[in-house]
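User: I'm new to structure prediction. If I give you an amino acid sequence, what do you actually give back? Let's try with this one:
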Amino acid sequence: MLHDISHKLIAGIERQIKEQGTDAVSVDIFEWSHRSALDAIGLGSMGHDFQTLGGVDSEYSKAIKHMLPALFSLAILRPIMPTLYKIGPAWFRRAIITRIPSKAIKQVLSLVDVQHEQALQIFDQKKRTLSGMKYSHNLGSAQKDVVTLMLQANEKAESKDKISEEEMLGQLNTLIFAGHDTTSGALACIFQMLAEHPETQRKLREELQKCPLEDPDYATLKSFPLLDAIIKETLRLHPPVTVVERVSSRDIVLPLRTPTGVDAEGRSSTALAVPAGTLVMLSLRAANRDPTTWGPDAHEWNPYRWLEPLPAGVADARTPGVYSNMYVAAAQGLIL
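Assistant: Good question. You get back a string of structure tokens that encode the predicted 3D arrangement of the chain. For your 336 residues, that looks like this:
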């Protein structure tokens, strides 16, 4: 799948260059990253080709692209969101929100409606396809996209473990939005770093030109050390998700690498008690730029650090988000 998307990406950029017909050509790499990420996530999770690399600009692709900036405009509401979620059923919360005289809120609602309608159409289509295969006893030929697998798993689950179609649609929309934005952002950052470091870009080009295959598999992609190092270093310095939230499932005591605070008796704390149900926010960006872990050049883009044994502090710290493997495979395939 990634091979096909990579070829379409290259063809699209080449077509744009030819259409401009000038010596100095301007190519919006972020736009192409957005298109390639959406097509990849659409095929992988929905089994649906949005064809954005082919020039199709649907209302859905536009809604996905504009959703994150629209959400940022509502950042002031973030602290009260957990409370809002507890106010009545979804239809009641929607009725309240639609009455708020805010242009930003109305924009977000409009974008959400477009995404929900598209997801619902694809979801219903998948259900009809599976139903037809079940009737003809041909389930073995079903697609292996996330929607199909989710429907099959939900049908086999016990009653107590089944989830509603509304929940499945919510999971699907979240997967598409989160997967698209993080992947396109990661790709854009990688290309930006290469543009700012032409010597490293030259070395990477020399490395990739040695590839004997037109459509290399994952094992071949992993055999290019500089390509792998560039992706890891970019994800370290510019993680697609800068902060993650987790809720502790049980009481736990977390040891601190560096003692902090001093009590009345002059003793510093070496651990932190976290009760069950506590919301914990982890800053991946801060952890990935900590000089204690990465050394004095922690804030610099240096992919060559990955070509040597990593500092002991990196292995000992078990820093979250360093590898961000969910984005590495896609980035390797699309860059090559």
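You can read the tokens as a compact description of the fold. Here is one thing that stands out. Residues 103-135 form the longest helix (33 residues).
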